[in-house]
Specification:
- The complex is a heterodimer of chains A (258) and B (261).
- Chain A is 38% helix and 23% strand.
- Chain A has 9 helices and 10 strands.
- By secondary structure, chain B is an all-alpha fold.
- Chain B has one domain: MetI-like (MetI-like fold, Orthogonal Bundle).
- Chain B has 14 helices and no strands.
- In chain B, α3 crosses α10, α5 crosses α7 and α10 packs antiparallel against α13.
- Classes of the chains: A alpha/beta (258), B mainly alpha (261).
Chain lengths: 258, 261
């Protein structure tokens, strides 16, 4: 599976390089791309995709990028209810498979990034949390995402692998609201993606989760079947998978696609 | 009474306007899996959310009565500089996005909030992630409906009854409880029901301030939102329940809310 994805990525990269003389950000088609590309992307991609979108737009001045960031299952519901999406970027393969299975995507979905889980705490880690087991300490207010949200599902998996049982105080609807409640000081700890900790800058701190207990989230991307701008949608997907797009994503703390 | 012919330039936009509200409701009714209604309504999660919603919305209405009626009385009877501004401030949540209300509540009553920090350090009291937090969020958003309705009732009542009672020797408290309150009874009732219905439907301030946990802070609207992602049919059914309650309230209050104010 992983090899196949790697191969796909390589193929796309090659295709991108082949036709543009090595510069992936140059428009590849003879007719410049135009119109709007609506990208429905997982909340954890907010900052990274805004940046990737901006540089894609710089390279394709005729295109207007629009982003809709929300918890992945919300995006699936919106697309299935006919929201005008051109590209769907999911925080897990389950939701992508669901949308694909229901016939709402076109082409193959490709993993474009991976992400690790991290414990998010207040700056300076006042509660002294160093392991997943510390989340169950008395006096620690732990919050997480609802298990329907990929991050919440992964967090449960990580806790299970570490053999930790902890009752959260709240099941938030996406990673960003977990981070903001830590920032505001309402909760002491949560489990989010390491990119969310990076994105929050100095307002929160991260406590790494050992690889043995960690869950690596895979982010697949695909064009939405109902797209009215397939050329630009596919160009954006290719850009995300290109060397330039990948470098941008990694600058926000994402792991490479393979 | 002669029925006037309604001009077409009125009929067409009016019909579109009405359809704009009715079609989404019809959509909900048509798409709901009626066969599964009982299963969806009696699922433990649903009952838990329903129970919490009833408790929290009734508590919010209780708090709103205790605090809102005196406030309405002040607005209606006491002239003081800044009254209009104060009234605007205390009814702001009617037009404020509820999420903004939730953030404001966090900044005031959160663990690091203006008052919350002191309450936490002095008494160890915190509100976020508690049912009390849900009641606060609902009160914040719903109480203005009660304040405005009761104030309108106080302003439109005949004050001569109060004067007569005073002249006959009744104390101020006795006048308030025996004369004023019964006279504004209908507005009091209408305000309470409106406040309760608004509290029952509260979502944004609740999820922002109180969070979301089954049995503690997950009210019906929050359950509907989360079910939409896992069990759409059940979320349609629950939406309909909330909708029916609101419809009954509005139809029942038609005269109070539109007529007598």
């Amino acid at each position: 599976m992983r090899d196949r994805i790697a191969l796909l990525v390589a193929a796309v990269l090659l295709a991108a390089c082949g036709s543009s003389g090595g510069n992936a950000s140059t428009p590849r088609s003879a007719t410049p791309l135009s119109g709007t590309v609506s990208v429905f992307a997982a909340a954890s991609l907010t900052d990274a995709f805004n940046a990737v979108g901006a540089s894609f737009q710089r390279a394709n001045s005729g295109v207007t990028m629009k982003f809709n960031f929300a918890g992945t299952p919300t995006l699936v519901t919106q697309i299935e209810q006919g929201a005008p999406a051109d590209v769907f970027a999911s925080a897990d393969t389950t939701n992508m498979d669901k949308l694909k299975g229901d016939g709402f995507t076109t082409g193959t979905s490709q993993v474009f990034a991976r992400n690790k889980l991290e414990i998010v705490v207040a700056p300076g880690n006042p509660k002294g949390i160093t392991t997943l087991a510390d989340l169950a300490k008395s006096g620690v207010i732990y919050i997480t995402e609802a298990p329907t949200v990929p991050a919440g599902k992964y967090a449960l998996q990580a806790l299970k692998m570490a053999g930790v049982t902890v009752t959260p105080k709240s099941l938030e609807t996406d990673v960003k609201s977990v981070v903001s409640k830590i920032e505001l000081g309402e909760a002491d700890a949560g489990i989010v993606y390491s990119t969310d900790v990076t994105a929050a800058g100095g307002k929160v701190a991260g406590v790494p989760i050992p690889d043995a207990d960690n869950v690596i989230a895979q982010y697949p991307i695909a064009a939405v079947k109902a797209t009215t701008n397939a050329a630009a949608a596919n160009a954006f997907i290719a850009y995300v998978l290109s060397a330039a797009g990948q470098a941008k994503l990694q600058s926000f703390g994402f792991l490479s696609a393979s | 009474m002669r029925q006037e012919r309604v001009p077409i330039v009125i009929v067409v936009p009016a019909a579109i306007g009405a359809a704009f509200f009715i079609v989404p409701l019809v959509g909900l009714v048509v798409r709901s899996p009626w066969g599964d209604a009982i299963t969806a309504l009696t699922a433990p999660e649903t009952l838990e959310a329903l129970k919490l919603s009833v408790i929290a919305s009734l508590s919010a209405t209780g708090v709103a009565l205790v605090l809102g009626v005196p406030l309405a009385w002040v607005y209606a009877r006491v002239a003081f500089p800044g009254r209009d501004l104060l009234r605007a401030l205390t009814t702001l949540p009617m037009v404020l996005p509820p999420v903004v209300g939730g953030i404001a509540l966090l900044l005031a009553f959160g663990r690091r909030g203006l008052l919350g920090a002191w309450l936490n350090s002095t008494f160890g009291i915190t509100f976020p992630f508690t049912t009390v937090g849900v009641v606060m969020a609902e009160t914040f958003v719903a109480m203005p409906f009660l304040i405005l309705t009761v104030e309108a009732g106080l302003r439109s009542m005949d004050r001569r009854y109060e004067e007569a009672a005073r002249a006959l020797g009744a104390g101020r408290w006795r006048v308030f409880t025996r004369v004023t309150l019964p006279l504004i009874g209908p507005s009091l009732f209408a305000g309470s029901v409106l406040c309760w219905a608004r509290a029952l439907g509260e979502f944004g301030a609740t999820i922002t301030f109180a969070g979301n946990f089954p049995g503690v802070t997950q009210t019906m609207p929050l359950a509907v939102y989360l079910l939409l992602e896992t069990n759409q049919e059940a979320s349609f059914i629950l939406s309909l329940v909330l909708l029916l309650v609101s419809l009954v309230v509005l139809v029942g209050l038609k005269d109070r809310w539109l007529g007598s104010a």
